């Protein structure tokens, strides 16, 4: 079995993106599955194209995309991606789109990873985690939606989903007191536990585990 994990490059003037920092430090093998990883751009259109190019190159059984959600305190698997973009800031090439991502596509796609079991696994590893029901309307949501669209239409049998991570602790040195953050090491532990649950579990995100709604 092979797992493809993607992480975004830095954006918005930042020098690091904790998503890629954590993804790049994942083990080479998780729960018996080979782990491939790739960095993707924070550019509308090019980000999803980079994910599909990696899928074509790696031929994974499971795809997990990871992005930063500054302000969150937990690692959050996303439940759903929506067919809409409303970029609050320009992407790394100055694009700031508003509108549907796929004019003929469905309004939303659910993740096909066991998001509740993933949260339970991260919490068991001592990592704060919770299911999220909104991936926003920036590049992260676009990648989740377009990933699920390409899996549904061009890569049948491949499971996929998206996880947001908080700011890395070092990013918050110049931010306001109390800004939520997490160490990259803890992110790695949480993502590893989540991937173990995804590899060994099923593809039904609607089945909740114990305590996931706290």
UniProtKB/TrEMBL annotation:
GO terms for molecular function: pyroglutamyl-peptidase activity. Keywords: Cytoplasm, Hydrolase, Protease, Thiol protease. It comes from the Bacteria. The keyword Nucleus does not apply. Its EC number is 3.4.19.3. Homotetramer. Removes 5-oxoproline from various penultimate amino acid residues except L-proline. This is Pyrrolidone-carboxylate peptidase. It comes from Olsenella profusa. The lineage of its organism: Bacteria, Bacillati, Actinomycetota, Coriobacteriia, Coriobacteriales.
């Amino acid at each position: 079995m092979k797992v493809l994990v993607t992480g975004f490059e830095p954006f918005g003037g930042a020098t690091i993106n904790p998503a890629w920092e954590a993804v790049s430090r994942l083990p080479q093998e998780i729960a018996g599955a080979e782990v491939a990883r790739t960095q993707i751009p924070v550019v509308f259109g090019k980000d999803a194209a980079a994910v599909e190019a990696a899928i074509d190159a790696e031929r994974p059984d499971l795809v997990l995309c990871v992005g930063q959600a500054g302000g969150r305190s937990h690692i959050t698997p996303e439940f759903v991606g929506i067919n809409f973009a409303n970029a609050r800031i320009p992407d790394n090439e100055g694009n700031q789109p508003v509108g549907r991502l796929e004019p003929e596509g469905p309004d939303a796609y659910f993740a096909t990873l066991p998001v509740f079991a993933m949260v339970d696994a991260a919490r068991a590893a001592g990592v704060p985690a919770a299911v999220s029901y909104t991936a926003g309307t920036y590049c992260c949501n676009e990648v989740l939606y377009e990933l699920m669209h390409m899996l549904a239409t061009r890569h049948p049998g491949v499971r996929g989903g998206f996880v947001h991570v908080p700011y890395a602790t070092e990013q918050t040195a110049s931010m306001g007191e109390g800004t939520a953050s997490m160490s990259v090491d803890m992110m790695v532990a949480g993502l590893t536990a989540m991937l173990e649950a995804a590899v060994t579990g099923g593809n039904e995100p609607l089945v909740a585990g114990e305590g996931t709604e706290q």
